[in-house]
Design a protein that fits this description.
The chain is α+β, with helices and mostly antiparallel strands. The protein is built from 9 helices and 10 strands. It has 3 domains: 71 residues, Integrase, N-terminal zinc-binding domain (Arc Repressor Mutant, subunit A), CATH 1.10.10.200; 89 residues, 2-Layer Sandwich (Alpha-Beta Plaits), CATH 3.30.70.980; 71 residues, YebC, transcriptional regulation domain (Alpha-Beta Plaits, 2-Layer Sandwich). The strands form 3 sheets. The chain has a 4-stranded antiparallel β-sheet. Strands 5-6-4-7 form a 4-stranded antiparallel β-sheet. A two-stranded parallel sheet has the order 8-10.
Protein backbone atom coordinates (compact mmCIF):
# COMPACT_ATOMS: atom_id res chain seq x y z
CA UNK A 1 0.00 0.00 0.00
CA UNK A 2 1.35 3.41 -0.97
CA UNK A 3 2.32 6.02 1.61
CA UNK A 4 -0.53 8.33 0.66
CA UNK A 5 -3.00 5.44 0.71
CA UNK A 6 -1.98 4.65 4.29
CA UNK A 7 -2.53 8.28 5.28
CA UNK A 8 -5.93 8.25 3.59
CA UNK A 9 -6.95 5.08 5.41
CA UNK A 10 -5.97 6.51 8.79
CA UNK A 11 -7.83 9.76 8.08
CA UNK A 12 -11.00 7.86 7.16
CA UNK A 13 -10.71 5.69 10.27
CA UNK A 14 -10.19 8.74 12.46
CA UNK A 15 -13.12 10.48 10.86
CA UNK A 16 -15.37 7.49 11.37
CA UNK A 17 -14.46 7.27 15.04
CA UNK A 18 -14.17 10.97 15.78
CA UNK A 19 -16.42 11.94 18.70
CA UNK A 20 -15.67 15.61 18.12
CA UNK A 21 -18.22 15.86 15.33
CA UNK A 22 -18.97 19.51 16.14
CA UNK A 23 -15.29 20.43 15.74
CA UNK A 24 -15.17 18.61 12.41
CA UNK A 25 -18.22 20.52 11.19
CA UNK A 26 -16.58 23.79 12.24
CA UNK A 27 -13.48 23.04 10.15
CA UNK A 28 -15.51 22.07 7.10
CA UNK A 29 -17.68 25.17 7.50
CA UNK A 30 -14.56 27.34 7.42
CA UNK A 31 -13.53 25.75 4.12
CA UNK A 32 -16.95 26.53 2.69
CA UNK A 33 -16.89 30.13 4.00
CA UNK A 34 -13.47 30.86 2.49
CA UNK A 35 -14.33 29.16 -0.81
CA UNK A 36 -17.58 31.15 -1.11
CA UNK A 37 -15.83 34.39 -0.21
CA UNK A 38 -13.10 33.85 -2.81
CA UNK A 39 -15.14 32.47 -5.70
CA UNK A 40 -18.79 33.22 -5.06
CA UNK A 41 -21.75 31.18 -3.76
CA UNK A 42 -22.48 29.13 -6.90
CA UNK A 43 -20.79 25.70 -6.68
CA UNK A 44 -21.25 25.17 -10.42
CA UNK A 45 -19.06 28.20 -11.07
CA UNK A 46 -16.81 27.77 -8.02
CA UNK A 47 -14.92 24.50 -8.12
CA UNK A 48 -13.29 24.99 -4.73
CA UNK A 49 -16.71 25.53 -3.14
CA UNK A 50 -18.02 22.39 -4.83
CA UNK A 51 -15.16 20.35 -3.34
CA UNK A 52 -15.83 21.85 0.11
CA UNK A 53 -19.54 21.01 -0.13
CA UNK A 54 -18.75 17.44 -1.19
CA UNK A 55 -16.43 17.11 1.80
CA UNK A 56 -19.18 18.43 4.08
CA UNK A 57 -21.62 15.87 2.73
CA UNK A 58 -19.07 13.08 3.18
CA UNK A 59 -18.99 13.80 6.94
CA UNK A 60 -22.80 14.04 7.10
CA UNK A 61 -22.90 17.77 7.74
CA UNK A 62 -26.55 18.95 7.69
CA UNK A 63 -27.58 20.87 4.57
CA UNK A 64 -28.75 23.81 6.71
CA UNK A 65 -25.20 24.15 8.08
CA UNK A 66 -23.79 24.09 4.55
CA UNK A 67 -26.21 26.78 3.37
CA UNK A 68 -25.43 29.02 6.36
CA UNK A 69 -21.69 28.69 5.71
CA UNK A 70 -22.17 29.66 2.05
CA UNK A 71 -24.26 32.67 3.10
CA UNK A 72 -21.64 33.80 5.60
CA UNK A 73 -18.88 33.48 3.03
CA UNK A 74 -20.80 35.39 0.37
CA UNK A 75 -21.83 38.23 2.67
CA UNK A 76 -25.30 37.00 3.53
CA UNK A 77 -24.59 36.64 7.23
CA UNK A 78 -21.95 37.31 9.87
CA UNK A 79 -18.66 37.44 7.97
CA UNK A 80 -15.61 35.87 9.60
CA UNK A 81 -12.24 37.33 8.63
CA UNK A 82 -10.47 34.00 8.16
CA UNK A 83 -7.10 33.84 6.43
CA UNK A 84 -5.20 30.82 5.19
CA UNK A 85 -1.72 30.15 6.55
CA UNK A 86 0.69 27.25 5.97
CA UNK A 87 3.15 26.44 8.76
CA UNK A 88 6.22 24.32 8.15
CA UNK A 89 8.28 22.33 10.59
CA UNK A 90 10.25 19.23 11.49
CA UNK A 91 8.80 16.38 13.49
CA UNK A 92 10.37 13.44 15.34
CA UNK A 93 13.04 11.77 13.23
CA UNK A 94 13.47 14.97 11.22
CA UNK A 95 10.36 14.39 9.10
CA UNK A 96 8.95 17.33 7.13
CA UNK A 97 5.52 18.55 8.24
CA UNK A 98 3.12 20.96 6.53
CA UNK A 99 0.27 22.43 8.59
CA UNK A 100 -2.56 24.11 6.67
CA UNK A 101 -4.62 26.44 8.86
CA UNK A 102 -7.55 28.81 8.53
CA UNK A 103 -7.66 31.38 11.30
CA UNK A 104 -9.04 34.70 12.45
CA UNK A 105 -6.08 35.18 14.82
CA UNK A 106 -2.68 34.24 13.39
CA UNK A 107 -0.82 34.95 16.66
CA UNK A 108 -3.00 32.46 18.55
CA UNK A 109 -2.68 29.82 15.86
CA UNK A 110 1.09 30.20 15.52
CA UNK A 111 1.51 29.82 19.28
CA UNK A 112 -0.66 26.68 19.37
CA UNK A 113 1.11 25.07 16.41
CA UNK A 114 4.54 25.87 17.85
CA UNK A 115 3.49 24.35 21.19
CA UNK A 116 2.51 21.05 19.55
CA UNK A 117 5.84 20.79 17.73
CA UNK A 118 7.74 21.52 20.93
CA UNK A 119 5.67 19.06 22.98
CA UNK A 120 6.57 16.17 20.68
CA UNK A 121 10.25 16.98 20.18
CA UNK A 122 9.78 18.72 16.84
CA UNK A 123 10.49 22.27 15.72
CA UNK A 124 8.51 24.91 13.87
CA UNK A 125 10.52 26.26 10.93
CA UNK A 126 10.38 29.24 8.60
CA UNK A 127 8.46 29.57 5.36
CA UNK A 128 10.00 27.47 2.59
CA UNK A 129 11.94 25.19 4.95
CA UNK A 130 10.12 21.98 3.98
CA UNK A 131 7.47 22.95 1.40
CA UNK A 132 9.83 22.02 -1.44
CA UNK A 133 9.53 18.39 -0.37
CA UNK A 134 5.84 18.32 -1.32
CA UNK A 135 3.82 18.95 -4.47
CA UNK A 136 0.20 19.89 -4.95
CA UNK A 137 -1.81 17.26 -6.81
CA UNK A 138 -5.38 16.26 -7.41
CA UNK A 139 -6.30 12.94 -5.76
CA UNK A 140 -9.37 10.92 -6.71
CA UNK A 141 -10.34 7.84 -4.71
CA UNK A 142 -12.27 5.04 -6.44
CA UNK A 143 -13.68 2.12 -4.39
CA UNK A 144 -12.21 -1.21 -5.47
CA UNK A 145 -15.41 -3.22 -4.99
CA UNK A 146 -16.93 -4.34 -8.27
CA UNK A 147 -14.50 -2.54 -10.57
CA UNK A 148 -11.63 -3.59 -12.82
CA UNK A 149 -8.61 -1.62 -11.62
CA UNK A 150 -6.93 -1.76 -15.02
CA UNK A 151 -10.07 -0.44 -16.70
CA UNK A 152 -10.26 2.41 -14.19
CA UNK A 153 -6.62 3.20 -14.93
CA UNK A 154 -7.25 3.35 -18.69
CA UNK A 155 -10.31 5.57 -18.24
CA UNK A 156 -8.37 7.87 -15.90
CA UNK A 157 -5.43 8.17 -18.28
CA UNK A 158 -7.77 8.89 -21.20
CA UNK A 159 -9.37 11.58 -19.02
CA UNK A 160 -6.04 13.27 -18.36
CA UNK A 161 -4.73 11.62 -15.17
CA UNK A 162 -1.01 11.84 -14.45
CA UNK A 163 -0.64 8.63 -12.40
CA UNK A 164 -2.73 5.81 -10.90
CA UNK A 165 -2.08 3.55 -7.91
CA UNK A 166 -4.10 0.44 -8.76
CA UNK A 167 -2.74 -1.43 -5.72
CA UNK A 168 -4.19 1.06 -3.23
CA UNK A 169 -7.55 0.51 -1.54
CA UNK A 170 -9.40 2.54 -2.65
CA UNK A 171 -7.71 2.98 -6.04
CA UNK A 172 -6.02 6.38 -6.16
CA UNK A 173 -5.89 8.53 -9.29
CA UNK A 174 -3.45 11.45 -9.33
CA UNK A 175 -3.85 14.51 -11.53
CA UNK A 176 -2.41 17.95 -12.04
CA UNK A 177 -4.45 20.31 -9.82
CA UNK A 178 -6.12 21.96 -12.79
CA UNK A 179 -7.15 18.60 -14.29
CA UNK A 180 -8.91 17.20 -11.21
CA UNK A 181 -12.43 18.17 -12.26
CA UNK A 182 -12.02 16.95 -15.84
CA UNK A 183 -10.70 13.54 -14.73
CA UNK A 184 -13.43 13.18 -12.11
CA UNK A 185 -16.10 13.92 -14.71
CA UNK A 186 -14.52 11.48 -17.17
CA UNK A 187 -14.63 8.68 -14.61
CA UNK A 188 -18.17 9.40 -13.48
CA UNK A 189 -19.37 9.70 -17.08
CA UNK A 190 -18.02 6.19 -17.67
CA UNK A 191 -20.01 4.88 -14.71
CA UNK A 192 -17.11 4.77 -12.24
CA UNK A 193 -18.07 5.67 -8.67
CA UNK A 194 -15.84 8.36 -7.17
CA UNK A 195 -15.49 8.20 -3.39
CA UNK A 196 -13.70 11.53 -3.04
CA UNK A 197 -11.85 14.14 -5.09
CA UNK A 198 -9.57 16.74 -3.53
CA UNK A 199 -6.49 18.87 -3.96
CA UNK A 200 -3.79 17.58 -1.61
CA UNK A 201 -0.14 18.07 -0.81
CA UNK A 202 1.78 14.89 -1.62
CA UNK A 203 5.30 14.12 -0.43
CA UNK A 204 7.76 13.77 -3.32
CA UNK A 205 9.76 11.23 -1.30
CA UNK A 206 9.07 9.57 2.03
CA UNK A 207 11.33 9.03 5.03
CA UNK A 208 11.41 5.65 6.75
CA UNK A 209 11.10 5.76 10.54
CA UNK A 210 11.33 2.98 13.07
CA UNK A 211 8.12 2.10 14.89
CA UNK A 212 8.92 4.26 17.94
CA UNK A 213 9.66 7.41 15.93
CA UNK A 214 6.67 6.76 13.67
CA UNK A 215 4.35 6.64 16.69
CA UNK A 216 5.82 9.92 17.92
CA UNK A 217 5.38 11.53 14.51
CA UNK A 218 1.78 10.31 14.27
CA UNK A 219 1.15 11.78 17.72
CA UNK A 220 2.36 15.15 16.46
CA UNK A 221 0.05 14.93 13.45
CA UNK A 222 -2.86 14.02 15.71
CA UNK A 223 -2.21 16.88 18.14
CA UNK A 224 -1.96 19.37 15.29
CA UNK A 225 -5.15 18.11 13.64
CA UNK A 226 -7.03 18.48 16.91
CA UNK A 227 -6.36 22.23 16.93
CA UNK A 228 -9.48 24.17 15.96
CA UNK A 229 -7.66 26.32 13.39
CA UNK A 230 -5.85 23.47 11.61
CA UNK A 231 -7.53 22.10 8.50
CA UNK A 232 -5.06 19.41 7.45
CA UNK A 233 -1.58 18.14 8.21
CA UNK A 234 0.80 16.42 5.78
CA UNK A 235 4.07 14.71 6.65
CA UNK A 236 6.62 12.88 4.52
CA UNK A 237 7.27 9.75 6.56
CA UNK A 238 6.15 6.27 5.59
CA UNK A 239 4.17 4.47 8.26
CA UNK A 240 5.65 1.05 9.19
CA UNK A 241 3.20 -1.80 8.65
CA UNK A 242 3.05 -2.69 12.35
CA UNK A 243 2.19 0.89 13.32
CA UNK A 244 -0.29 1.21 10.45
CA UNK A 245 -2.05 -1.95 11.68
CA UNK A 246 -2.26 -0.50 15.21
CA UNK A 247 -3.76 2.78 14.07
CA UNK A 248 -6.00 1.67 11.20
CA UNK A 249 -7.09 -1.64 12.65
Amino acid sequence: MSGHSKWSTIKRQKGANDAKRGALFTKVAREIIIAARMGGPDPDANYRLRLAIEKARSVNMPMDNIKRAIERGSGGGDTEAYEEIVYEGYGPGGVAVLVEAQTDNRNRTAAEVRSMFTKTGGQLAGSGAVAWQFEQRGVIAVPRAGVDADEVALLAIDGGAADIDTDADPIEVYTEPGDLEAVRKALESAGVKVESAEIAMIAKNTVELDAHKARQALRLVELLEDLDDVQRVTANFDIPEEVFAEVAG
